Amino acid sequence: MAKKKTASTAEEKLRALYDLQLIDTRVDRLRVVQGELPLEVEDLADEVAGLTSRLEKLKEEAGVAQQRCADRKSGIVESQALIKRFEEQQNEVRNNREFDSLNKEIEYQNLEIQLAEKRIREAEAEFDGKAEIVSALEEKLKGRSADLKTKKKELSEIVAETRAEEEVLMVMSTDMQKNIDQRLLVAYSRIRGGAKNGMAVVPIEREASAGSFIKIPPQRQLDVSARKQIIIDEHSGRILVDKELAEEEIVRVDALVAKKLKKKK
C-alpha cells in the first residue's frame, strides 16, 4: 500500500487540519448523544456495590446478635439445670454451712439468668433494629438495581446505534492524522484539549473566529484567505481558516463519511 503523502503547502495543511477537526467534531457529537449516561451508569453501579456491601455487613452483624441471643438462652437452660441440681443437693446436706454454700450457688445462677435475660433483650433489640435497616436497604437496593439495569440498557442501545458511525470516524481520524505534519498535529491536539468545545481549527465568521465575538483585523482576515501560512487567532488561540475553504471541506468530508458509512452497512 502506498504511503500517504503529508500535506506540504500551507493550504494543504489547513485543509488537512480542518478535515481532521470536522471528523473529530462528529465523534464528539456522537459521544454527546450518550450524554451523562456513562457517568450515571458508573455512579449507579458504585451505589449498588456500596449498598450490597453494607447489606452483607448488616446481615452479618444481625446474625452475630441472633447467635448471642441463642447462646444466652442456652446459658439460661444450663443455669436452670444447675439450680435444680443444687436444690436437690440441699435436701441431702448434713450441716448449715453446706446448705448456705449451695444457696449462694443458686443465688449466683439466678443472677446469671437475670443478666442473660437482660443481654437477650439487648441482642433482640439490636437484631430487630438491624433487621429493619436490612429490609429498608434491600428495598433500596432492589430499586437501584432496577435503575442500573434500565440505564445500562439505554446506554447499550445508544452505543449500538452510534457504534458503526463512530468506528468509521475513528479510522478516518487516524488516517487523516498520518497526512499531517507531527508538529502541527501536536499543536492541534494541544489547542483542542484546551478548548471547552474541542474546536482547534475554526473558520472566520462575521469577521471573528467562530464562537468568538472579538473581530479580527481586516489585514489578518486577508492573510487567512490567502492560505499562505498557518495563522492562529491571538484571542481564542485557535487555528483560523477562511469561510470558503471551510464550506468546501464540509461538503467534501460529509460526502466521504456518507460513502464510508454506506460501505460499512
Q: What does the model show?
A:
This protein is mainly alpha-helical. It folds into two domains: 10-34 and 181-264, no CATH class; 37-160, Helix Hairpins, CATH 1.10.287.1490. Helices cover 77% and strands 4% of the residues. It has six helices and three strands. The chain has helices at residues 10-34, 37-90, 96-177, 182-194, 218-226, 243-264, and strands spanning 201-205, 208-209, 239-241. It has a three-stranded mixed β-sheet with strand order 2-1-3. A hairpin with a 2-residue loop joins strand 1 and strand 2 (208-209). Helix 1 runs antiparallel to helix 3, helix 2 (37-90) runs antiparallel to helix 3 (96-177) and helix 3 (96-177) crosses helix 6. The longest helix has 82 residues, at 96-177. It is rod-shaped, with a radius of gyration of 39 Å. The two termini are 24 Å apart. The relative contact order is 0.15.
Give a quick summary of the entry:
The protein has 265 residues and is mainly alpha-helical.
- Indicate the percent of residues in helices: over 70%
Amount of beta strand: under 5%
User: Helix and strand succession?
Assistant: HHHHEEHEH
CATH-defined architecture of the largest domain: Orthogonal Bundle
Q: Note poorly predicted spans.
A: none
The average pLDDT score comes to: 90
Class computed from helices, strands and strand pairing: mainly alpha
* Annotated CATH topology of the largest domain: Helix Hairpins
| Widest sheet: strand ordering | 2-1-3
What keyword list fits this structure?
265 residues; mainly alpha; Helix Hairpins; three-stranded mixed beta sheet; 6 helices; 77% helix
